[in-house]
Give the backbone structure.
Amino acid sequence: MAGIINASGFFAKKILPQLQCYRPEASDVPFAPPQELSARLASFCSNDMEKVRAFFVWIADNISYKIPEKNTRKKNYPENEINEEDTGALKPLDVRVAEQVLKNKTAYCDGYSRLFKTLCDFAGIRCEVISGYARTNYGNQGSFKPNHTWNAVYVDSSWHLLDVTWASGFISIRSGDFVRYYDDHYFLTPPDVFIRDHYPDDIRWTLLDKWPPIREFNRSPYRNQSFIKYSITSFYPSSGIIEAAPGDTIRIILETGSVSEDKKIAPEPEWDDSTLGRSGWAVAHPISGPSGNKIIYSYTVPDNSPEWLHIIYNEDPVLRYRIRFKKGKLPMNTN
C-alpha cells in the first residue's frame, strides 16, 4: 500500500541553511486556518520575498502528495469536494480548497497551488494559479491537454514562476510511496528553464518574449528531474521520438559546460539500472570517457525493440527518448 516517506530530517539539516531569503523560524509554525497560517509565517519575514519563500517551503515540507488510488481511471480531487451545507461554501474557492488541504495534509497539484495562492492573497501578494501541461508520465506523447497546475507570483516588481508540488518530492517508482524530498529548483525558476517541462494554457504565462510552439515542446526528449542538476547545454537528436528497426544503431550526444564539475554532483539514490530495466525500457551509458565536454552514447536496437530509451549521465537518468518501431531496416543518421 502506498504511503509517505518523510525526508524532512535531511531537509532541515542540509537544505534549509542554504536557502536564501528564508527565515528558519517559519519551519516550526504549526497547521492553522489559511489566514492565521499566512499571518504566522509572514510574522517572521521582513519583506515579500521572504514571505513567498516561507509559504513555499512550509507547504513543501508539510503537505504530502496524495497517491492516486489504484484501479481508478480518473483522479478525484478531494480538496475540491466542498460540503455545500457548510457555511464555508460561501468563501472563495481558493480558500475552501486551502482549508481542505490543510485539514487532510495531502493534495494533488491543484490543492498545492491554491493553498500557495491563498497564503499569498492573505499577505497581500499578487499570485495566480496557472493551468497547463507538464511532461511527467510515460504516456502518449502525441496528446496535448492540461494536466498540471502551478503558480506565478508578483514579487520584487516582476512576475516569477514556481511549482510547489514538484518541489515537495516525488512518487517512488519502486514502491509507489510519496517521498518528501525538497527541490529548490522549482522556486522562482527562470522562465527559459521552466518552459522545458511546464507549458501554460495561456502562453503569456511563459513570461517569455518568444516561446516554443506546442509541437516542439511536446516532441522534444523528456528531461528527467536529474537533468536540471547538471550543466548540460545541448543534446542530439533534438526530437524525442526516434524511428528505428532491430539492428539499427542510435547515436546520442550530450554536451555539458563542465564534465569535471558535474562529477562532483551526487546521483539520485532512487534510480539505478535495476529500476530502469523493466519491460519496454532500455538504458544507454556513455560508450567511453568524455571527448572534451561531449558525451557520446551508442545503442543498438534489439529484436524486441523497447519503447523508451533512458540516457544515463553521472549515474543519473537525464533524458528519455521514445523509440518508434519500424519494420525493415531504416537508415539512421549517426553523425
